[in-house]
Amino acid sequence: MQSTLPVSQHSLFDDAQALVTGTLLISLGVNLLGTANLITGGTVGIAILLKYFTGVSFGKLFFLVNLPFYLLAYKKMGRVFTLKTFLSVGLLSAWSELLPLVFKIGDVNPFYSAVMGGLLAGVGLLILFRHRASLGGVNVLVLFLQERMGWRAGYMQLTIDGAIVLLSLSIVPIDRIAISLLGAAVLNLTLAINHVPGRYGAA
C-alpha cells in the first residue's frame, strides 16, 4: 500500500550532518584501502594512483582531480547538487589530510581492508546520494545517467571502477589488484542494492 504521507524535505541541518558523516566514513574506508596498498575506482582511485606515482598526499590530489568535473555537474545536475558535491569533495580532502594525525592503522589483512573499506565507502556514498550530493567525477556521471536513463548507479560505477582498477596493473602487484576488485565489488553492490530510484521520498 502506497503511503499518503506528505514528502518531507531535508533541512539545511540534515544536509550538513549528512555531508560530514558520509565523508568521514569514506575517509576511513579510503585509509583502510591505502594502508593495504589497494586501489579503487572513480576519482578516488585516480587520486590514489597519482599518490603512488608522485608521493603527494591523497587529500590534495583528490581535490585537484575533481576540479574539471564541476562544470558538468553544474550543467547537468544543477547548482545545489554542484555546491553539495564541492563541499563533499572538500570535506573528504580535509578529513584525509587530518586522519593520519589522529588515527593510524598498523598491520591489517588486505581482505579485511578491501571488504570493510568498500563497505564504509559504499555507506558513505549512500548517505551523500540520499542528500543530492556526490564525490564528483564518476559519481556525477552515473547519477546523471541514473536520473535521466534509469540505469542503476551501482552497476554502472562497478563497470567503470573495474576498468580503472585494471589500469593500475603497472604499479600495483597482481594479488593486490585481485583483492582491490573485491573491494570495488563490495562498494558498488552496496550502492546497487540500496540506492534505487524512487524508493525514498525525502529530497
UniProtKB/TrEMBL annotation:
Membrane topology: Multi-pass membrane protein
Record keywords, A-Z: Cell membrane, Membrane, Transmembrane, Transmembrane helix
Transmembrane segments: 18-40, 52-73, 111-129, 150-171, 177-196
Main subcellular location: membrane
Subcellular location: Cell membrane
PANTHER family linked: UPF0750 MEMBRANE PROTEIN YITT, UPF0750 MEMBRANE PROTEIN YITT-RELATED
Protein name (database record): YitT family protein
